[in-house]
Design brief:
CATH class of chain A: Mainly Beta
Largest sheet of chain A: 16 strands, antiparallel, barrel
Strand content of chain A: over 45%
Number of strands of chain A: 22
CATH superfamily of chain A: monomeric porin ompg
Structural class of chain A: mainly beta
Shape of chain B: flat
Largest sheet of chain B: none
Order of helices and strands of chain B: EHH
Order of helices and strands of chain A: HEEEHEEEEEEEEHEEEEEEEEEEE
Strand content of chain B: under 5%
Largest interface: A-B, 111 and 61 residues
Structural class of chain B: mainly alpha
Number of domains of chain A: 1
CATH topology of chain A: Porin
Oligomer: heterodimer
Helix content of chain A: under 10%
Number of helices of chain B: 2
Radius of gyration of chain A: 24 Å
Number of strands of chain B: 1
Strand order of the largest sheet of chain A: 1-2-3-4-5-6-7-8-9-13-14-15-16-20-21-22
Number of helices of chain A: 3
Distance between the termini of chain B: 67 Å
Chain lengths: 408, 83
């Protein structure tokens, strides 16, 4: 039984037109930046150079090394600033999903660049940004902007934002013109920042993300089981056990072509003396049936000598997508083989709980914001429990980031 | 081969925009009752109060990949409003 992968959508010449549009967007953004900079009026500019090296590893044999660079310029009195960044992801993976399809360990490089310009001449401000991310078999680009107004002596600042992004997934060594899966994403954000008192601030935000297109992973294949066997496949069943229980053949993913994501978020931040507490909460739901809550807290403590340190906690709990099944069933019916019309092997669409604990330390050579050198180290350890997934029932991840920045 | 129909979808979450607007209006009213002079904003201007503090590009990427939920990035980004 060879059931095949999800079929790709073909386009006349998507890469050429996409590249042309991206080039125009980047030129437009650069032009806007130059225009803003030229209107600076000869005031001294502040430049910020930053670098980061991050390393990620998890118990599912995924390793990522991410060096990045950023360059910023700002004119405080002119109220404009611009920032450009570039990063590289070097991913090496031999996860259980790869092993289960008898594929070898692979290494892949992702390049990503971003540009952002912010301008606030009066009590209103505009922010424009764009980014491009490229892998051998994946292209993603994004443009977006927001508008904000400071009201009530800058105690209430509402914001309206919109962004558009497009992802193109393909197969390695195969041109997008031959095979590609396209995904478009429109995002609308409404938010407000409220100054409660001289030391506290509340930020509220609601966001709608409208996704249209194909979200299947071209390389992801699912095992299928008979109706009698499927209920007996245990959570976290090993590759060997799955192979002994599954039907022969495999099937590609198939996901709904539209997804509407909605979230409501709030963050409370307060500072007393030399310590700061920030707590945020996000409630999320989408039309695939995923419901989630994410709580994040950080407590920053000044420890003297230009040093700050903080613990960080994050808790993410989610329900699975409505079509999620640990073991999908295929069975003969009227001379054909029936199978679920929607199916996925994406573990991040299953019910899960992720608890992250970590912290950081920062050393700054100046107490004045955006001045001098700043060195930051972050460590996070996350533990994810999958309540209804094949192959693994948990994963522990480690993330270390080292950052340095200098403003002159 | 013929696909079977998907299981019935669960009730969809509807974000109540009027509720959110009402909450913002209420909060702005509360803020209007508590004047904060520019010279009182030093704490609000501290870098640790800024939305991006203690965040890295790698961390954001990891969260986006590992969590089935995206969006709701908090941070209007207007700064402390001290100018």
């Amino acid at each position: 039984m060879q059931l095949g992968a999800a079929a790709g959508k073909q386009f006349p010449d998507p890469v050429g037109s996409r590249r042309s549009a991206m080039r125009r967007l980047w030129l437009g953004a650069l032009g806007a930046g130059v225009l803003v900079a030229s209107s600076a009026g000869g005031e001294p500019l502040k430049y910020t150079l930053g670098g980061e090296v991050a390393g990620y590893a998890d118990t599912d044999n995924v390793y990522v090394l991410t060096p990045s660079l950023s360059l910023g310029a700002s004119q405080p009195t002119g109220a404009w600033k611009a920032n450009a960044s570039y990063l590289v992801d070097i991913v090496t993976a031999a996860s259980v999903d790869i092993v289960s399809t008898a594929s070898p360990r692979w290494t892949e490089v992702r390049n990503a660049g971003a540009l952002n310009v912010d301008y606030q001449p009066q009590n209103f401000g505009v922010n424009l940004g764009g980014s491009v991310s490229r892998e051998p078999d994946y292209l993603s680009w994004y443009v977006g902007g927001s508008f904000r107004v400071e009201m009530y002596d800058k105690r209430f600042t509402p914001l309206l934002g919109y962004s558009y992004s497009q992802d193109t997934a393909g197969r390695k060594d195969t041109p997008f013109s031959v095979y590609s899966l396209e995904l478009e994403r429109n995002t609308i954000q409404v938010g407000a920042e409220i100054v409660l008192n001289p030391s506290s601030r509340l930020t509220l935000s609601t966001e709608a993300v409208l996704e249209d297109g194909r979200q299947e992973k071209p390389y992801r294949y699912l095992p299928l089981f008979s109706a009698e066997i499927a209920p007996t496949v245990p959570r976290g069943a090993s590759v060997d056990l799955v192979n002994s229980l599954r039907l022969s053949g495999e099937m590609g993913e198939r996901l709904p072509d539209t997804r509407r994501r909605y979230s409501v978020s709030g963050e409370f931040a307060t500072r007393d003396g030399d310590h700061t507490l920030r707590v945020s909460e996000r409630l999320y739901g989408d039309t695939w049936g995923v419901l989630a809550t994410t709580t994040d807290a950080i407590y920053v403590l000044g420890i003297g000598g230009g040093f700050r340190a903080w613990p960080h906690l994050r808790l993410h709990l989610q329900d699975g997508a409505s079509f999620w099944q640990r073991a999908y069933v295929a069975e003969p019916a009227s001379g054909q083989i029936s199978y679920p019309s929607l199916r996925t092997g994406d573990r991040e669409l299953s019910p899960l709980l992720t608890a992250t604990a970590g912290g950081g330390i920062e050393y700054a050579t100046s107490t004045i914001p955006n001045t001098g050198w700043r060195f930051t180290g972050l460590v996070d350890v996350g533990r994810t429990s999958y309540f209804d997934a094949l192959y693994i029932d948990s994963r522990t991840s480690f993330l270390v980031s080292l950052m340095a920045g200098h403003t002159l | 081969m013929r696909p079977t129909s998907a299981r019935p979808s669960r009730p969809r979450l509807v974000v109540s925009l009027p509720w959110f607007v009402s909450l913002c209006a209420l909060a702005s009213f509360a803020a209007a009752c508590a004047p904060v002079a520019p010279y009182q904003r030093a704490r609000l201007a501290d870098p640790s109060m800024a939305p991006g503090f203690a965040e890295s590009a790698a961390n954001e990427h990891v969260q986006a990949v590992q969590e089935g939920a995206v969006g709701g990035k908090v941070g209007v980004g207007s700064g402390c409003g001290c100018n």
